[in-house]
């Protein structure tokens, strides 16, 4: 179960990174390229992924 949570959080984090890079124009070839709203959406998605990683790996005392 912990592995699945980590994997899901990493996927969300990677998607957020991709959206952020498209938002600032570093990854071309999409309607998202160069759109600042996708930078914001990507950063929020990355935050959700990081929170998910923290949740998946918290100690269970």
Describe the fold and architecture.
This protein has 61 residues and is an all-alpha fold. The protein has one domain. Helix content is 70%, strand content 0%. It is built from 2 helices and no strands. α1 packs antiparallel against α2. The longest helix is centred in the N-terminal third of the chain and has 22 residues, at 2-23. It is elongated and about 40 Å long. The mean pLDDT is 93. The chain crosses the membrane at residues 39-56.
Task: Write down how many β-strands occur, each being a DSSP E stretch of 2 or more residues.
Answer: 0
Order of SSEs, N→C? HH
Number of helices: 2
Give the overall pLDDT as a whole number: 93
Low-confidence stretches: none
Strand content: under 5%
End-to-end C-alpha gap: 17 Å
Largest sheet: none
Give me the secondary-structure category: mainly alpha
Query: What is the overall silhouette?
Result: elongated
Q: Please bin the fraction of helical residues.
A: over 70%
Layout: helices, strands, pairs:
Elements: H1 2-23, H2 36-56
Helix pairs in contact: 1-2
Short description:
This protein is mostly helical and 61 residues long. The chain is built from 2 helices and no strands.
Q: What brief labels describe this structure?
A:
61 residues, mainly alpha, 2 helices, 70% helix, elongated, transmembrane, membrane, transmembrane helix
């Amino acid at each position: 179960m912990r592995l699945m949570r980590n994997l899901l959080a990493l996927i969300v984090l990677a998607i957020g990174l991709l959206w952020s890079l498209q938002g600032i124009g570093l990854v071309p070839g999409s309607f998202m390229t160069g759109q600042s709203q996708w930078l914001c959406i990507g950063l929020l998605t990355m935050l959700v992924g990081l929170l998910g990683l923290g949740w998946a790996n918290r100690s269970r005392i």
